Amino acid sequence: MVQLHPAVFTCVQWPLSRPLQTSGGKTVVFFDLETTGLETWRCEIIQLAAFSGDRTFNVYTMPEIAIDRGAAEVTGFSVQDGALLLQGRAVLTVTLTEALTSFLDFLQSLEQPVLLAAHGARRFDKPVLDRALLRCSLTRRFSSWAPDSWTPYRSVGRSIRG
Predict the structure, then answer these.
(1) pTM, whole model, 2 decimals?
(2) Of 1.10.3720.10, 3.30.700.20, 3.30.420.10, 3.40.50.300, which CATH number belongs to 9-145?
(3) CA–CA distance, 8 with 3 (Å, rounded to integer)
C-alpha cells in the first residue's frame, strides 16, 4: 500500500510557472479528493484533482452510493436523473478505473520522481485512494514506479526549492 503523510495546499501560490521540486529532486504534485462522505472505509471518490507547476489534472466519477448530505453541502455535488452535478450543472464522468488510470498517467508524465502532497492526507486521502487503487487492481501499478512518493509535509516544506 501507499505510504503517505499530510501536506498543506495553502503553502503554495498557484498557478505556478514551473513545478516545485524538493532539494532531493522530487517533483511536488498537490492533489485533492472530493468524496461521497467522510467515512474512509465506505466513501467513494467523485472528483480527483491535482496540479504540478502549470500542469493540471481533473476528473469526475459517478458514485455508486449516495452522497451524504454534509458532503453535498460542502462540495456542491449532487446526483440527479443519473447525472453528477456540481453546483447544479452536469459534469462529464468516467469510471473509477479510468479516473485512476488517467491520474497515474498524469503522474508518470511529470519529471520523476514525484512527491504527492495533500491536506489531511494521512487520515483521509491516503486510505480512500488506497482502497480505490485496490478496488481497481491498480495498487501494483502505482507502487511499481512510485514506492516512495509520499513523504511528511514537514519534510516537503523544508526541502522545496523555488
Answers:
(1) 0.80
(2) 3.30.420.10
(3) 17
